[in-house]
């Protein structure tokens, strides 16, 4: 993507190409204002105001653009994205009003992942003007955070292993004068035994670690953000088929979301004491892989019997959530590409949301709906806890009945989120996100995707801003 600051600029009356937005119902009346030649030009392009249509209209020696939207009076993040994808390089202005929420999709529509190949014929930037200068910095920051998630998830595992996630956290810490600690080796085995067990079979270059960034005034409410950082998931000894491994570079999508969200929190200066925790591992296969039937210790002291080595994300999150709980947080949010069950239930576009408190869940749902990042709440049924029972340990990591997989994984994590100092359950929300878009949509390219990021960010702004 072009540098975000290049794509959104304040409208100071500079020269720009006009954009008109119309819908199918209002197109006929709007077209009456045009000349016969202009109407003929749109007719030749089969433009009728349908959503995401783009038309070019000659205007003397110049031209203007017209875009089809659902409702010109209520724009979405994506309604001008097709224009940003298809119009030639230049500077543009919406005529009938300000782009508002469409500023976000205008930027993400121009995202390109170019780490491994150069786009020789890539168009130059399409710049959109806004009459609301105060909206520019926040929307640029949001688009940059979404692009960060896409970049990290799109990068293959060889170049985005645990050490690379550590480097991303280090760069983030330097940018915001945060403190960073990284736990590895024997100390990791002692303090975060499940993180160590899952990652110990990887090569030295991809050795496991617990990344912990802290920032903000210690007097402020504690916000903990946790992200699953499985940089590649072979399934372990319960090995995945080849088709199941093909996209497993994206299994660190939770960590990508957590890093991006932490950057937004620090960049906006929210009045919180931030703890970002990323357990970073590769679930590899070797002679020292953890096995089905093993019993692992955990940071919290609970013992976990391994029913499936491919249910490893919940193990590393368990240790990280236990550590986050030790800070007596006001709120804990975790992101994870955790279960296929969530995708079966909700498909690729809707992150599954689970939460202990109804008001927290509703705030996240409302923020997502308001900012075109919808989530769907799944339950944490008390009666399903029995499915995590083990005959020889405190709990198992993978029930065998195949029911309610996303919720049962959430219940597993819930065991590792502690209580506040006053004895009440810590406020905790869990996003089971896909972090991937299998097919492109306007403003949402195929590949790595930020799903749940904006919902969480706007909820946090409302709560702590």
TrEMBL record:
Gene3D superfamilies the record matches: Leucine Aminopeptidase, subunit E, domain 1, Zn peptidases
Gene Ontology MF, one: aminopeptidase activity
Entries under CDD domains matching the protein: Peptidase_M17
Domain of life: Bacteria
Domain spans labelled Cytosol aminopeptidase: 308-315
InterPro entries according to UniProt: Leucine_aapep/pepB, Macro_dom-like, Peptidase_M17_C, Peptidase_M17_N_1
Keywords from the named record: Aminopeptidase, Hydrolase, Manganese, Protease
Record's keyword annotation contains Oxidoreductase: no
Similarity comment: Belongs to the peptidase M17 family.
PANTHER family: LEUCINE AMINOPEPTIDASE-RELATED (PTHR11963), PEPTIDASE B (PTHR11963:SF20)
Protein name per UniProt: Leucyl aminopeptidase
